[in-house]
Design brief:
By secondary structure, this protein is of the alpha/beta class. The chain has 3 domains: 86 residues, Orthogonal Bundle (Arc Repressor Mutant, subunit A); 103 residues, D-Maltodextrin-Binding Protein, domain 2, CATH 3.40.190; 102 residues, 3-Layer(aba) Sandwich (D-Maltodextrin-Binding Protein, domain 2), CATH 3.40.190.10. The protein has 9 helices and 9 strands. Strands 1, 2, 3, 4, 5, 6, 7, 8 and 9 form a 9-stranded mixed β-sheet that branches. Strand 1, helix 5 and strand 2 form a beta-alpha-beta unit. The longest helix has 29 residues. The relative contact order is 0.13.
Length: 302
């Protein structure tokens, strides 16, 4: 069905008068009347109540149903046209991302803030989620870009736009009874018999690194999100062993120290759906992000 028919039906309903609606739509009244009859034949029902001398159009029950749905269809088309126009022009575009919650404050301060200064009309949709859900968001089109450091199952679904190594840290309450968090961890042996909380998907590299030094890690909990790891640490239930690109937003009573083991690293990945073309604005954001990351890595001390 031509959406113009739906639009003119909505217009007739809202004006309550065919003559007025036809004038606004810039068509002849007989043409508008024909469009409404076509809709009635299509759905097999009358859309407006009939009656002699009635100047104000009044919907039937089925007419109300079609009015609500037609209004939604027209709104969807309007929003789609607007979003496509914004994507092509790069103005007023919405940049959509998925990532773990603890990454968001640094992401906003380090990348969103400077990009917004040069692109003041850009809007953002940031989905704070756990790692596997980040992949699902990208796979199903909920987010244009995902940022994660978990191993990717079914990697053929994604294009990696940028990656860089991330080191692991121990995070614990400042009053934890297990470990002094004032100095970096030089050996996995320092974690012997320590109750560790780790992320799903990181167990293999943690266990193999520990086994290289002759210890078996005591894993108290294996969880799905960084936020849950940090909650365990904040409540002094265990020590969170997590990978980070650097300092992140932590509760004031949490402390973190790096683990100085070269093998115990993972990669932070910025990825998109394979074959999906980035919007103009997102392409500019990704270009800025990569340049800033390369500059940061080149200027970091050894």
């Amino acid at each position: 069905m031509n959406l113009t028919y739906y639009r003119n039906f909505v217009l007739a309903t809202e004006t309550g008068n065919l003559t007025k609606a036809a004038k606004i739509a810039h068509i002849a009244q007989p043409a508008l009347t024909h469009q409404i009859r076509v809709l009635e034949e299509e759905f097999g029902t009358r859309l407006f109540e009939s009656g002699r001398g009635r100047h104000q159009l009044r919907l039937t029950d089925t007419g109300w149903t079609l009015y609500r749905r037609a209004k939604q269809l027209c709104q969807i088309e309007d929003e789609t046209v607007a979003e496509m126009s914004e994507s092509m022009s790069g103005t007023n575009a919405v940049l959509s991302f998925s990532m773990a919650s603890p990454r968001v404050p640094v992401f906003v301060s380090r990348y969103v803030e400077p990009f917004t200064r040069t692109h003041p009309d850009i809007r953002y949709d940031i989905r704070e989620t756990f790692h596997l859900a980040t992949l699902d968001d990208v796979l199903h089109g909920n987010s244009e870009i995902g940022i994660t450091n978990i191993a990717i199952p079914d990697a053929y679904h994604f294009d990696v736009l940028f990656s860089h190594p991330e080191h692991y840290y121990i995070v614990g309450h400042e009053d934890n009874p297990w470990l002094d968090l004032s100095e970096p961890i030089e050996s996995m042996a320092a974690l012997r018999d320590m109750p560790l909380v780790i992320l799903q998907g990181h167990q293999r590299i943690i266990e193999s690194t520990c086994l290289d030094e002759g210890i078996v890690p005591l894993i108290r909990a294996r969880v799905g999100t960084l936020a849950t790891c940090l909650e365990f640490a904040a409540r002094n239930i265990g020590l969170a062993l997590i990978s980070l690109g650097g300092p992140c937003a932590l509760a004031h009573d949490l402390k973190f120290v790096p683990i100085k083991r070269e093998r115990l690293t993972t990669s932070m990945l910025m990825l998109k759906l394979k074959g999906r073309r980035l919007s103009k604005a997102m392409g500019e954001f990704v270009e800025m992000y990569i340049e800033m990351e390369k500059h940061k890595n080149n200027t970091e001390p050894e």
